[in-house]
């Protein structure tokens, strides 16, 4: 094989490898979020991603995936088809601390009547956190909404807890970050699609 043919083969192999790798739409604090993911056989697009901070500490990176990108809270909550919430821990967190913060954020953004209606699912979801000791730095917690199954959680790719059937409950989870009392007000706008901002080059968030 000539030197030219070897070079062509090497270039072709590099292009093939690159085409098989996921395209990353965002990188926040070193955590990469793929531009698209597949849930229940549907391709979902990254709607937005950012970092949850508490005081000066980075707690976790978070991203929302929808079938079609939405720029308002109302449109996100009304989105059709499967959805995904992806959380990547940026520090060690006990299951008690993470679970309590999760439940507080949910309760802060759901009215009393809806809280009563969703109580069995909220209780079951809270019990899920007792199934693992906590989140280590780098652990990934995913909550998928699959219309034919419900809300299913995965820790590092393994199912945890039972599916919760109501879309209203998945919306209640989303409201933790985009509700009227989000756990981190600076994170909320980053989870809503902004076409103008997305088309402009942005520095990596450190």
TrEMBL record:
Domain Chalcone isomerase positions: 25-192
Pfam families reported for this sequence: Chalcone_3
Domain of life: Bacteria
Keywords, ordered alphabetically: Lipoprotein, Membrane, Signal, Transmembrane
InterPro entries per the UniProt record, alphabetical: Chalcone_isomerase, Chalcone_isomerase_3-sand, Chalcone_isomerase_sf
Keyword Flavoprotein applies: no
Transport found in the keyword field: no
Protein name: Lipoprotein transmembrane
Organism: Massilia eburnea
């Amino acid at each position: 094989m000539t030197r030219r043919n070897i070079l062509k083969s090497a270039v072709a192999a590099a292009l093939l490898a690159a085409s098989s790798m996921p395209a990353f739409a965002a990188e926040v604090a070193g955590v990469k979020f793929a531009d698209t993911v597949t849930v229940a056989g549907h391709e979902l697009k990254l709607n937005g991603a950012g970092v949850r901070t508490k005081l000066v500490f980075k707690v976790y990176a978070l991203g929302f995936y929808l079938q079609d990108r939405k720029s308002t809270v109302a449109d996100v909550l009304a989105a059709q088809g499967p959805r995904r919430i992806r959380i990547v821990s940026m520090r060690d967190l006990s299951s008690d601390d993470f679970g309590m913060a999760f439940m507080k954020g949910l309760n802060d953004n759901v009215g009393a009547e809806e809280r009563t209606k969703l109580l069995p699912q909220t209780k079951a979801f809270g019990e899920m956190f007792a199934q693992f000791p906590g989140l280590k730095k780098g652990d990934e917690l995913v909550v998928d909404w699959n219309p034919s199954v419900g809300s299913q959680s995965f820790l590092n790719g393994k199912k945890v807890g039972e599916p919760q059937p109501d879309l209203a409950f998945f919306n209640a989870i989303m409201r933790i970050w985009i509700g009227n009392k989000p756990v981190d007000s600076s994170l909320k706008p980053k989870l809503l699609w902004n076409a103008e901002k997305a088309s402009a080059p942005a520095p990596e968030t450190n």
